[in-house]
Structures are given as structure tokens and as C-alpha cells.
Amino acid sequence: MRRVPVLIHPHVNAHTENPIDDIGGHICLGCLHNLDVAELLGRSPVKTTLNLVGPLIRGRSVLITGAGGTIGAELARQVSAYAPARVCFLDRDESALHATELSIAHSGLLTSEPYVLCDIRDREALADIFTRYRPDIVFHAAALKHVPMLERFPEEGWKTNVVGTAHVLGEALRMGVTTFVNISTDKAADPSTVLGQTKRLGEMLTAHAAEEGTGRYVSVRFGNVLGSRGSVLETFAYQIAHRLPVTVTDPEVTRFFMTINEACRLVLEAATIGHDGHALVLEMGEAVRIADIATRLIDRAGSSSPIVYTGLRPGEKMREVLFSQAENPRPTQHPAIRAVAVPPIDPRDIAPSYAHMPMMKERTSCAHM
Predict the structure, then answer these.
(1) Rounded Cα–Cα distance for residues 20 and 41 (Å)
(2) Which three-class secondary structure state does DSSP give residue 48?
(3) Which residues are catalytic?
(4) pLDDT (tens digit, 9 = 90+) per residue, 196-212?
(5) Which of 166, 182, 328, 332 is the most buried (most CB within 10 A)?
(6) How far apart are CA 342 and CA 192, in angstroms?
(7) Cα-atom radius of gyration of the chain, to the nearest Å?
(8) What does each C-alpha distance from 31 to 90, 118, 306 come to in angstroms?
(9) Is 126 helix (H, G, I), strand (E, B) or coil?
């Protein structure tokens, strides 16, 4: 069987016009063959030109939160290739920062200036970092993202996804940041989970910052990022490699998927074409059945692992949507990216903790748009 590379572990050539085009490598899936991502997605990956990204980043100071995560680390690699004057790669996970440094500097000493250990929940520590690095551009990728964990521990999701985001936005406004991109999720459209509700509030806080600041403040909504840390691809691959049953919640459950390549392109594109306060969404084709992905992986591996259906978890939808019914998607300069206006919310109006979240549900539902 033909082995096809999957865009997971990038090695960037800093001398290319669009460094992201050179992402390559293979996902480590034990006994599995390398996968045709386009076949898994049921569509060809979306391409963007990124012609304006180099001029935007070159010679500027750039700060990336969540720089140890899958998307944050890839953004760190791409930004580094565009010759910024200064960078700050911020995360609360020291081991994740170690991995990011290895992939960029090919060393893991953790002594160089760009790698910063800081929790966005800590406003005072964050303020010190913003004052030291004085960023022109901020990519906000730090978040808690796993639906079942946040259903069990909603206060943790609130502290990071809402309070932490408010802290990052507040510091960006204080420092006069010119471009701010907040990474959201399709689960913020008609949110039914703690993750969706907290990320929707992150979009609304970003829209408020757009009204308050002089720079461009935008959000991007991701589908599920295929191959990201903790994704279903990683879970299925582990189960198949260890000859375990492959667990799927429901035979008919579907999700929108995008590749790491597409996700990073969307973030960088949003930094140049996003309309102030809006959320940008990549056209990801038809939603994909999770069971179909599991079946294809099992077939590629020549495995006999059975699929076991476990039932939807609390708050999970059978089908996600990219836009709420009340939203009116509008075209952008890119034919595969649409945008929606987001109603702003003042950080002074958000509840002090998730215990008070029920009073916010009507405001996050978009019903008033």
C-alpha cells in the first residue's frame, strides 16, 4: 500500500516565501501505515496564499500563548520563519515548551529568552511578560479544550478560557497591540457544553476589545484538528496499535475536521484579512462520521480491532455546526473563509465564576443577533 505523509511534525525552511508550505513529516501511529489525510477528511485540504503574512510579522514583536500545544507550537515555528524582531512563546507547561524549543532551536536547554513559563490565569505575571516583550501581534492559543473534562471541572474551563482570555485581551489593549487573533472552536456556535460556552464568551470578549482598542481583534473557529494532541486520531491509533477495541461515542456522530496545516493557515490568514471583532470560519466541507474515520484507520492497519460504541457524553451534540441559526455568514477576501459578526461583552459584565454561568446562557446563545 502506498504510504502518504501526514502533516503533523513540521520542519520549516526559513527561506521559503510561505514557510507553512514546507510542513512535512509523518505521524507516529505504531503499526499503522501513514494516512491519506484528504481521504480521511473526504475532501482536499484548503490552500491559502499567506502573501500578506510576511510583511505583517517581519520586524515585529510577536507573542503566542499556548505555545506548547499542537497549534501554538506550529504557529511558533511558522512565525519564527518570517523573521520577527522578537518572539515570546508562552505556556504554563514546561515540558511542552521544551518540545517546542527542540522543534525550533534543535536544543532543549530552556535557557533562551523566547520560551516563557506563565499561566494566563495570573494577571500580574502576564502583565510583566507583556511589559517586557511589548508585542505588536498576539496569537492566543492557550485553552482547555476537552469537552468531558470541562463538563466535570467547569470552573477550570472558566478560569482559563474566560478569565485567562480576558487577562490576555486586557494586556493587549494596555500595550496597544496592533493585531490579535483569538483561537475559538465550532463548539462556540450554539454552545451546549462548558467548552462551547467558555469559548463563545472568549469570542465576545475579543469583539469588545475590538471596540476598545485601535488594532485588529479577531477570532477564528476551528473544527476538530486532525492529528492534534489528544485528538481522536491519536486515540484510535493507540487503540489499534495495541489491539484494543476502538471506542466511538455513537455510530452516527459527525464532526468537522481540519488539518494542522489548515488550522495554522487560518490563524495566519485571519491576522491579515479578519474584520475587527468578527469570527472567521474555514469551509471544511461536509461533516465526517467519526465511525468512518475509525473504520478507515482499522482497514489501513490491517487490524481486527472492533469498534465499540460508548454513547454520547454529557453536553455532546450528535452534529456540530459552524454557525448558529442566528448568525449571517459573510464572504471574505478568501473564497474558503467566511466571517460572522460577534456581539461584544464587557469583561466587567462576566460572572465572577462558572457557578454563576446559567445567567449568561441567553447572552452566549446569539439569540439577540
Answers:
(1) 20
(2) coil
(3) 187
(4) 999 999 999 999 999 99
(5) 182
(6) 18
(7) 20
(8) 35, 38, 16
(9) helix
